[in-house]
Each structure stands twice: as structure tokens, then as C-alpha cells.
Specification:
The chain is built from 13 helices and no strands. With 198 residues, the chain is an all-alpha fold. The protein has two domains: 8-99, Orthogonal Bundle (Death Domain, Fas); 119-194, Death Domain, Fas. Helix 8 packs across helix 11 (156-165). It starts with 7 loop residues before the first helix and ends with a helix.
């Protein structure tokens, strides 16, 4: 541990990158298309390079790995989520004053999205709590509004973003009623009740 001068994020990226096998890299690249350009993705030959590109684009940082945390279960690497969360919590503790300027603790609360441009963060946090079978139920429930193939291949975060894109969720007006109904019909009343406003 003598090399503590090394950038902790760079060290962690090397560690996580080493844990992600080459055959999983293809899935990770596909999931990264929402965050970085395909040109950048194509230039990455391993997971560490891809994570570095995400960091350079401001999509992950030492105190915010939500994008990576959302990807790992879709790559069947949910076991790594604990390592990522542990790293982020340690970094937040090191710089508590700068990590939470409002004195707000966002650990158990979903971010309010009333007029908040960072809807993607909300979608990530909510999406993490939705299982694959629940997501499949929700997709079936909204086929009438979106059409059959419109949600194919989308993970939970992308699905929630899609609902906003087509106007079924309207954060600007604080309207999450459609999403709330989907969650309730998928037996996730607990999540529906967490939504900022229904």
C-alpha cells in the first residue's frame, strides 16, 4: 500500500478492469453506448480502457459509480457491485465535506427529479431495484403505448429513460403516475411509493 500517491480511481479501474473478462467486454461496450460515442467505445480493447473513457467523459468518478453499478448486474457480474460500492463509500468518507455540499445524504433517498436535469441518475437508482422478471412484466404492461419491439433489449434504466422520452413520465411537471402504475402492477408498490411525486 506504499503507492498511495497513485490516483485511487485509476488504481480501482485497473482492479475492476482486470476482473471483467474479455468475453464480457462486448456486453459492457453495448451498455456504454448511452454514455460515450461509438468511436471511443470501438477504440477500447479491454474493460479498464472502457472504464477510463467513461471517467474521462464524467460518467463515473471516485465518488459516483452509478453507471458502472447499473451495468454489472446486466453483465451477470452483480458480485462486483459490493466492491464498487465499498470503494465509493471510502472515497466519500475521505472527502465528506466536498462529497455532500448540501449536507444531503443521498444514500437511501432517490434524488428528487422535479425540474432536475439529471433524470438519468434517478433512472439508474430506481433501475437498480428492479429485477429482470419485474422489468419483463413492466415491458409487457406498456406494449399498448410503446409497441411490441420498442423496449426490446433495454435494461431497467434505459426503459425508464424511454418512458420519459415518449412523454409517459414528465419530471418537469412532477408526473410519475404512469411509472407508479407500472411498478404497482409488477408488485413493486414499495418502489412506487418512493417516487418523488405521483
Amino acid at each position: 500500500m506504499a503507492s498511495s500517491q497513485l490516483n485511487p480511481l485509476a488504481k480501482f479501474i485497473e482492479y475492476i478492469g482486470g476482473e471483467i473478462k474479455n468475453d464480457e467486454l462486448k456486453g459492457m461496450k453495448r451498455l456504454s453506448k448511452d454514455y460515450i460515442s461509438e468511436n471511443k467505445i470501438d477504440r477500447c480493447t479491454d474493460a479498464a480502457e472502457l472504464l477510463t473513457a467513461l471517467a474521462e467523459n464524467g460518467k463515473i468518478s471516485a465518488t459516483n459509480m452509478d453507471v458502472l453499478i447499473a451495468m454489472l448486474p446486466d453483465m451477470n457480474r452483480a458480485a462486483l457491485v459490493e466492491d464498487v460500492e465499498e470503494f465509493v463509500n471510502k472515497q466519500k468518507q475521505k472527502g465528506t465535506s466536498s462529497a455532500a455540499p448540501d449536507g444531503a445524504t443521498n444514500q437511501n433517498k432517490m434524488p428528487s427529479t422535479d425540474g432536475n436535469p439529471d433524470f438519468a441518475e434517478f433512472a439508474l437508482k430506481l433501475g437498480r431495484d428492479i429485477s429482470k422478471s419485474e422489468l419483463a412484466d413492466m415491458k409487457i404492461l406498456c406494449q399498448g403505448q410503446l409497441g411490441k419491439g420498442a423496449t426490446e433489449g433495454l435494461n431497467a434504466k434505459q426503459f425508464i429513460m424511454k418512458l420519459k422520452e415518449v412523454g409517459l413520465i414528465c419530471p418537469e411537471k412532477g408526473d410519475y403516475s404512469y411509472l407508479g402504475n407500472l411498478l404497482r402492477n409488477a408488485d413493486r408498490k414499495d418502489l412506487a411509493d418512493k417516487l418523488p411525486r405521483i
